[in-house]
Fold this protein.
Amino acid sequence: MTDPIEIRGGAGPFEAAAVAAVVQHVLDTERQRRSRRPDAPPRPPAWVRAAFPRDPHDPLYAVFPDHRGDPEA
C-alpha cells in the first residue's frame, strides 16, 4: 500500500520499530481526519459577539435575580 521506509543512521531493531510505529500512527491519524466532515467554523468569543448587532428575531433572554420583590413578604 505504501512504499517501504528506509531508516539510516545506525538504528537498531527497537529504534526502527519505534520510528515505524510513529510513522504509522501519523498516517492513520491523517487518514481518519480526512474521512471526517470538517469541524464547524469557530465562533468568536462572547465579548466579541456582544458588539455585533442583535438579530431582532432572536429571543431576548432576561436574567432574573434570585429574589423578586420584597424578600420580607
Q: What stands out?
A: The radius of gyration is 28 Å. Helices lie at 13-35, 46-49. The mean pLDDT is 78.
